[in-house]
Amino acid sequence: MAGPTETTETTETTGAAGAAGAAGAAAPPYRVALVAFPGIRAFDVAVITEVWGTDRTDRGAPAFDLRRVAADGTTAVPMRGGLALHPDRPLDWLAEADLVVVPGLDDHLTPAPAPVLAALRRAHARGTTVAALCGGAFTLAQAGLLDDRRAITHWRLLDLLRTHHPRVTVVPDALFIEDDRIWTAAGTAAGIDLCLHLVRLAHGAEAAATIARSMVTAPFRTGTQAQFIEHPTHHADRDADALAAVREHALRRLDEPLTVADLAARAGMSPRSFARHFAAATGTTPLRWLLDQRIAAAQKLLERTDLPMPEVARRAGFGSEVTMRQHFAARLATSPRAYRAAFTGGSSPIAR
Description:
- By secondary structure, the chain is of the alpha/beta class.
- The chain has helices spanning 42-52, 114-125, 136-142, 158-164, 189-203, 205-215, 234-251, 260-267, 271-282, 286-304, 309-316, 321-332, 336-345; strands spanning 5-6, 30-35, 64-70, 77-79, 83-85, 89-90, 99-102, 129-132, 150-151, 169-170, 176-179, 182-185.
- The chain has an 8-stranded mixed sheet with strand order 1-11-12-8-7-2-3-6, with helices on both faces. Strands 4-5 form a two-stranded antiparallel sheet.
- It starts with a strand and ends in a 7-residue tail after the last helix.
């Protein structure tokens, strides 16, 4: 991908190939390597396995081939809580992978084995997309893959990453971020966000939504991790409930001309107060959130229907095809027609 992106706006991608191709029935399974070594977090292993290791082809999801890769392809990798991960491939399998994912760490300064670091460098040099969840950014930094690149990790670990890896440009307020085919994610649940986003890039919004529904989680979240740093007060909780109802109202009426003033009135707030509370709850502005939802709605219509472009634009709330095209260019670096054509042609932005 040509340059870094981050999820202060949720469905952002780069390059005309940002419109992912849906795999055809005859396409080979998408190959994902989970990199394992002592010290990796069981939660992140579970997330990776849930997203790419569960067969949901009967519900229309793509076929995946998830492999647990370790320096020794046969020895169990211990994890906290008495758990163990049994690898099924050696490190050289990374050469076969479409995507390499590194779990976070229980101790974020755990040194990864030298063969693992070398294998990660080789994978990235071959053009394979590499992703790390939470403290897995420290592993990529050990490998030198984050030198002079932007990265994110859990907000409590930002200073630690800066201190131990000063060449990394640490971004403080994203849920996940990409720089030169290297993805990093903020803490814990943001790993789920990143995994679903990677599915969305490779296979489309509907595939990601299918997996998200199965996991009973949101297909994507807006905003940044800044929204999770402060503890909410009772007033904030009450405001959040009102804002949630407003967001649900807006989602049911995306084809209508919604304004911030309209949404604020529904929440019983002034536009200024509404915008402030909305940003505190979601990490983004009401207009940016609304645009995210409209782009996501248009993506789904382009993937699932053959509706003409003006009708897609109308249903998604853009008003005109020209406006929709402008927002696709600004946010996805592609056009609606190219997005639809990518799905028809079965192309994918993550190179095999």
